Every structure is written in structure tokens, then in C-alpha cells.
């Protein structure tokens, strides 16, 4: 058995049986070893940013890591944006980066680079495996570190000769780590805060946005008269009819400040205290109100669900005290097609168990409201703000959950970063419907142009945010990669096309021509 065979066997034995990849010469022995370990599902991506974003989406839904396989430093660099999103979302990813043979590095060949420095931007665990005998052990450690807690990106650098050399053996998986139990004294202290007279809120993210944890969070705030707010961009939130509704903190700092106004205590659960997404002239970066004390109930290494359950018990919250979302769907839209109408149709028609990968940006602002009472579903968001996540995350979610409908809400500008995901969706025949909002603009940047105080805007500046001349034809782009696509210009056309897409299997794209709401 060579190093690559032992590596893949170790991955599979540790529960990592999907690898999203864009390999090169240094990774060919890994590719060849796929036939020797048939349990590993290799998924080819045409761009590294698709592979890394797909690994992120997969892990969010599977609750275990996928692997990536990237080619040297430039390949890692191409995948960096979506590894950044995975890092910010505390997503487990085993990131394998091929490297030159150990004896070849001294010659500074064209693709030689400092891979560890590149990886350090997104990964706190980095190891270059320099011995075939140690490779499987390093692999098992990478899986354990990625799985957490805390979950993270673990980067294993794989020299070509370590991969091709014979004499390797797989190793048994490392024992899974257990999350820390929150100190009962902390639970008692925070129960006293919540039962006191001062205005308090639970500010939740990460694992606290799962259905069972949300029930306990809702029981707590309803019993104590406090407030429940979720982070702006949770990695995965379980919502819809029969689940606990929760308001997410507004993206715009002014609106977020209104949500937090008057708080004297902010209890943070599996996230960090809120800050403004960007700096703006004359406006605060720290959104915690003046005079408000921040408390931490549970962090990324802690038993979040257990901490919320313990806090609910400490405040004597009744078992039935949670607020539960009633079923309810909006009416189907009619007339000219608008972003609001698209989101209304989504809420009216999406089936139970849908997974929504949301990169709709400005056009998707209405989606959360219109889907609040839709059948129970999962919602994935742009955790790190690096655009180009929506399509790859949808791809990965569909690989993780092949029996569920996945819907990607995608904006036109963001789609152009990673639309190669459509090709992989077609090849894998994944059940993903892309709703493509085409408003021919980087609309969110038009808004930000004004907010940062750049008010003296001329023709040249506006051209940098305009996506016309030529117009993008997403029907042609999608069909060129093997995905059936249609275009809707009226609400009736969109509804009919969406209903048809829901009635078929495999990927499809609906290009929704809408006006910018900014």
C-alpha cells in the first residue's frame, strides 16, 4: 500500500468518505488510489473555489467533514475565499493540498510556493507530512482536529513522493473529542441575570440555531421576559413551521443598533458579540450598546445544547414555553416579476425538508419573511462574506442530503465567481434548483457606496458596479454546462417554471429578471 492508498483508507475509516477535488500532477497518486478505496466518493470541480465551498456546504448538513484535494499553493489560493467562509462558520473541513516531492522543492520549480503561509489564513492546524510511514497518522489527526470541538479547517500538505512511496498502512481513527460541560456556576450566574430586573437578550449562533437548542432558547426568553436574537449569518439555521422563529441581527448597523437598544445584558451562545460588518465614517464598529455587559454561556468548544437546556432548567422554564411557528404560506404572485414576487413564490411552493443556500444578497432580502411559515427547512448563509459561496454550498449540501430538495438563491454578480458548480451538479445529477436573481448590477455595492460616504459619484464609478454591456445570459451559461435553464420575466412565468423544476429531479436554473431594489 502506498501513502495515498493509506491516506484515503484512513479518511474513510474515520467517516470522511467524500472528497471534492481539483487535482494536478502532484496529486495523481491520490487520484489513482480512488479505485483502490471505492468507498471514497470523489467529486470533480472545475475550480478550486467550488471544491472548497462544496466541502463547507456538505459538512454543514452532514455534521461531519468532507475532504478537499487541491493542487499546490496556487490551487489552495484559488479555494481560499470559501475556506474563509468555512472558517468563519466553524465548519469542519479536511483540506488536503498536494505539494512537490520533498527532494524537488529545492529547485524552486514554477509552481513552488509557501503553502503553509497561504493555509495559515484559514487553518489553525497545518501539517506537512514528510514521511510515508507517518502519513496515515497525520491524516487521522487532521480528521480529529477538523471535527472538533471546535470544528475547523485542518490543512494537510501532501508531498508527491510521500504519496507514491510504498510501505504505508492505514491507522484507526482517533477517539472523538467531547465538548466541554459549562460550569454550573456560570449557569447559576446567568440565570440570576435573566431573572433580574434589567433588560437582557440571548445572542445565539452556530449550534444554538439547531431546532432542539432553539426550543430551549425560546423557553428561556419567554420565561424571563428577555429577547432572542440570532447572528446575522448563521452557518445553518433550522426554521419554518413547527420550529422556533428567531429574528436575525440586521446586516445594516443602524437597524442592528435598534434591535439591541436598551439592553443591559447580552448573553452570547456559540458566537461572538456583534460588530458592524464594515467600518463607516462616524459610526461605531462595536454594536454592543454602551453600558451593556456581555456574558458568555457557551463557546465553540462547549456543549451548547446542554448549556441551553441547563439554563432553561435553572430559570424554571416550562417544557411548553417555547414559541412555535404556525404553518402559513404566502399567495402566489402575479403580474410583473419582482424580487419580492420570487421570494413569495418560494414561500408558497417550497417542499418540506428543503435546504436553502442563500446568496441572494439584496434581491433575497424578502426571502426570510415569506418562508417563515413554510414547511420545516434548513437555511445556509454566507458566513464569512466572501461571495461565490451560494452555488458550491448548495452542491455540497445536495451531496450530503441526496433525498432532499436544495434551492440556491443566487445573485447575478456572485454567480459569476463560482458558476462552474453547475457543471458538477449536472455531472452528479444533484437535485438543486438555482433561482438566479438577475438585476444586472452589483446592487449591494451601490448601497455601500453611499453608506461609506462616497457621495461624489460619477459615470466611471457607476460603471464599476454595472453588469451590462454585454448583458449576462445565464440561460446560455447554465445550459452550456449541462443544466436545463429557463428565463422568467413575469410572476406567472416564474411560478410555472418553479413548479416544473420541483416536479423533476436533477439540477435546473431559473433566471429571474428583476429590477434592483437598491
- Total beta-strand segments: 18
Mind summarizing the main beta sheet? 7 strands, mixed
CATH superfamily of the largest domain: Thiamin diphosphate (ThDP)-binding fold, Pyr/PP domains
- CATH classification class of the largest domain: Alpha Beta
Looking at how many chains there are and whether they match, the oligomeric state comes to single chain
Explained architecture:
With 518 residues, the protein is of the alpha/beta class. It folds into 3 domains: 3-164, Thiamin diphosphate (ThDP)-binding fold, Pyr/PP domains (Rossmann fold, 3-Layer(aba) Sandwich); 184-314, Rossmann fold, CATH 3.40.50.1220; 339-513, Thiamin diphosphate (ThDP)-binding fold, Pyr/PP domains (Rossmann fold), CATH 3.40.50.970. 37% of the residues lie in helices and 17% in strands. A 7-stranded mixed beta sheet has the order 9-14-13-15-16-18-17, sandwiched between helices. Helix 1 (3-13) packs parallel to helix 7. The radius of gyration is 24 Å and the shape is globular.
Amino acid at each position: 500500500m502506498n501513502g495515498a492508498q493509506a491516506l484515503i483508507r484512513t479518511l474513510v475509516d474515520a467517516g470522511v468518505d467524500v472528497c471534492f477535488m481539483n487535482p494536478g500532477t502532484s496529486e495523481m497518486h491520490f487520484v489513482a488510489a480512488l479505485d483502490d478505496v471505492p468507498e471514497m466518493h470523489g467529486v470533480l470541480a472545475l475550480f478550486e473555489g467550488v471544491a472548497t465551498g462544496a466541502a463547507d456546504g456538505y459538512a454543514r448538513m452532514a455534521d461531519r467533514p468532507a475532504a478537499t484535494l487541491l493542487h499546490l499553493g496556487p490551487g489552495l489560493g484559488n479555494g481560499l475565499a470559501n475556506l474563509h467562509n468555512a472558517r468563519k462558520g466553524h465548519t469542519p473541513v479536511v483540506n488536503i493540498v498536494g505539494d512537490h516531492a520533498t527532494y524537488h522543492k529545492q529547485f524552486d520549480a514554477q509552481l513552488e510556493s509557501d503553502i503553509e503561509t497561504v493555509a495559515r489564513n484559514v487553518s489553525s492546524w497545518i501539517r506537512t507530512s514528510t514521511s510515508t510511514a507517518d502519513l496515515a497518522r497525520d491524516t487521522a489527526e487532521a480528521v480529529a482536529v477538523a471535527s472538533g470541538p471546535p470544528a475547523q479547517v485542518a490543512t494537510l500538505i501532501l508531498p508527491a513522493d510521500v504519496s507514491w512511496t510504498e510501505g504505508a498502512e492505514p491507522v484507526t481513527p482517533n477517539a472523538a473529542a467531547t465538548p466541554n460541560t459549562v460550569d454550573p456556576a456560570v449557569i447559576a450566574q446567568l440565570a440570576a441575570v435573566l431573572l433580574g430586573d434589567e433588560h437582557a437578550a440571548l445572542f445565539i449562533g452556530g449550534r444554538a440555531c439547531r431546532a432542539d437548542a432553539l426550543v430551549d432558547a425560546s423557553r428561556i426568553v419567554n420565561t424571563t421576559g428577555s429577547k432572542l436574537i440570532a447572528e446575522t449569518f448563521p452557518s445553518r439555521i433550522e426554521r419554518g413551521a413547527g420550529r422556533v422563529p428567531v429574528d436575525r441581527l440586521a446586516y445594516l448597523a443602524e437597524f442592528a443598533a435598534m434591535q439591541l437598544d436598551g439592553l443591559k445584558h447580552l448573553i452570547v451562545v456559540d458566537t461572538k458579540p456583534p460588530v458592524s460588518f464594515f467600518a463607516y465614517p462616524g459610526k461605531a464598529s462595536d454594536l454592543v450598546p454602551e453600558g451593556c455587559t456581555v456574558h458568555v454561556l457557551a463557546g465553540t468548544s462547549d456543549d451548547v445544547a446542554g448549556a441551553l437546556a441547563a439554563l432553561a432548567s435553572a430559570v424554571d422554564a416550562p417544557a411548553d414555553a417555547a414559541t412555535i411557528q404556525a404553518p402559513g404560506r404566502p399567495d402566489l404572485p402575479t403580474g410583473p416579476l419582482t424580487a419580492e414576487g420570487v421570494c413569495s413564490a418560494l414561500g408558497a411552493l417550497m417542499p418540506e425538508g428543503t435546504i436553502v443556500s442563500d446568496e441572494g444578497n439584496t434581491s433575497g432580502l424578502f426571502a426570510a419573511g415569506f418562508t417563515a411559515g413554510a414547511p420545516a427547512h434548513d437555511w445556509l448563509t454566507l458566513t464569512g462574506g466572501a461571495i461565490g459561496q451560494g452555488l458550491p454550498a448548495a452542491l455540497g449540501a445536495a451531496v450530503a442530503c441526496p433525498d432532499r430538495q436544495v434551492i440556491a438563491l443566487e445573485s447575478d454578480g456572485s454567480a459569476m465567481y463560482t458558476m462552474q458548480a453547475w457543471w458538477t451538479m449536472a455531472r452528479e445529477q444533484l437535485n438543486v434548483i438555482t433561482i438566479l436573481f438577475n438585476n444586472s448590477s452589483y446592487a449591494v455595492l451601490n448601497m455601500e457606496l453611499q453608506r461609506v460616504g462616497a457621495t461624489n459619484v460619477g459615470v466611471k464609478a457607476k460603471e464599476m458596479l454595472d453588469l451590462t454591456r454585454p448583458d449576462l445570459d445565464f440561460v446560455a451559461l447554465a445550459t452550456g454546462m449541462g443544466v436545463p435553464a429557463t428565463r422568467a420575466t413575469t410572476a406567472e412565468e416564474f411560478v410555472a417554471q418553479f413548479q416544473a423544476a420541483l416536479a423533476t429531479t436533477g439540477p435546473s436554473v431559473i433566471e429571474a429578471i428583476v429590477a434592483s431594489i437598491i
